Amino acid sequence: MFSTIFNNLLGIEYVVTKDDTSAHIGYSRDENANTIIPHGLLSETGLDFIINQSIKFENWDDIPAFFRTGTGNLPFDIFAATFYLLSRYEEYGGFTPDHHNRFPASESVLYQNKILDKPLINLWALQLQEILKKTDTILVFKPRKFQYISTIDVDQMWKYKNKGFLRSIIGNVRDLYAKKWENFLERWPVLFGFRDDPFFNFDWQKALHLEFNTKTIYFLLLGNRSKFDKNIPHSNIAQQRAIQQLANSDNVDIGIHPSYHSNLSNELVSKEIKRLKDVTGDDVTISRQHFLMHQMPTTFHNLIANGITEEHTLGYSTDLGFRAGIACPFQFYDIGKEKITNLTLYPFCVMDITAPHYYGLKPDQAIARINDLMTSVYNVGGLFISLWHNESLSETERWKGWRVVYKKMVEKAAELSSK
């Protein structure tokens, strides 16, 4: 957490020393002007879930903080608090999982204290910077500047095409039975080439991303078909060509989207990564779990074992905000092994499904909420990552009228990045 605060957020090098005469900030039981009194968490080993219930938020000036240990300039142990949030301590146990056996937002200490929408660690770092600047004028900080990355999960490359005759017939019958008239009337014109497949909207995406110079990462689902994995076979030639075209696009990276059932299976993760590598010819080092399936620490262990170095699962589908309390990448600390790993976690703070499905918002309301969230990230020089799907850009069924939300978000990010 020291590296995250000083190197990543404040852009300044640090050295840990026992020479208190040369230190700019103290971390000890001796309460001086710029001393943080340790909470004790950082000297512990293992896990004690009682701590989850003992956290109490108070205001540090106007910033919420916890682990109060003193009364001076630095009354909170922000190092221990940062470690608690970044290590995902609360996700190791002592919570009630959701119906997919995931850690839900409602069990989060940030959600329960109604501050999930604040990039707390960024705010703490900037508060620390201001305190140090007042007493140590020789210090030179180079804090981060606002950045944006669009990430798009491709669960199904096409809505209708390349799924085979039998599956198309069955799909049409189901549409008829469910009275999904739009799908019933749209399927065959698409299959016969009279209309574009609504999920295959990558040309529209490409034009938008080129216009606003948007960094984009696509996550491809290549697992076997199952109840929660509705993709077509990984061997489909048309899909392989489409993936290659995405991989060859400017300002685009490609990552694996491990299937629902691969969450706890090292073998399945390895198999699916190999499928993507065989298509692109490149090593696969970026990942996001399908359905955000994730269990601490097994999921990360499997990814590390398979050469993944950049992970994008950290966020919630049900709520906007900062799952780890930060708008910045950070390295995964393995509490069980008590060591920093080479896996960098990239938390996202907004997902396409949240506003319409969980919040019940209309497109214009969603745009306003996302703008507010993005402004809060801009104000701390953070990294804003969005999670969308090609399906949610299709302008079909529940996504009619929602493409504008993504377009406005990309435009807003470009505007803020240029300031």
Can you walk through the features of this model?
By secondary structure, the protein is of the alpha/beta class. The protein contains 14 helices and 13 strands. Strands 7-6-5-13-12 form a 5-stranded parallel β-sheet. β3 and β4 form a beta hairpin. α6 packs antiparallel against α7 and α13 packs parallel to α14. It starts with a helix and ends with a helix. The mean pLDDT is 92.
What is the number of strand segments?
Answer: 13
Portion in strands: 5-15%
**How many helical stretches?**
14
Largest sheet: 5 strands, parallel
- Which class do the helix and strand fractions yield? alpha/beta
**Residue windows where pLDDT falls under 50 for at least 5 positions:** none
- Spatial order of the strands forming the largest sheet: 7-6-5-13-12
Descriptive terms for the model:
single chain; 419 residues; alpha/beta; 5-stranded parallel β-sheet; 4-stranded mixed β-sheet; 13 strands; 35% helix
Topology of this structure?
Layout: H1 2-9, E1 26-27, E2 35-36, H2 50-54, E3 58-60, E4 63-65, H3 78-86, H4 109-112, H5 120-135, E5 147-154, H6 165-177, H7 181-191, H8 202-211, E6 215-220, H9 237-247, E7 252-256, H10 266-280, E8 286-287, H11 298-305, E9 310-311, E10 330-334, E11 339-345, E12 350-351, H12 354-358, H13 363-379, E13 383-389, H14 403-417
Parallel strand pairs: 1-2, 5-6, 5-13, 6-7, 8-9, 9-11, 12-13
Antiparallel strand pairs: 3-4, 10-11
Helix pairs in contact: 6-7, 13-14
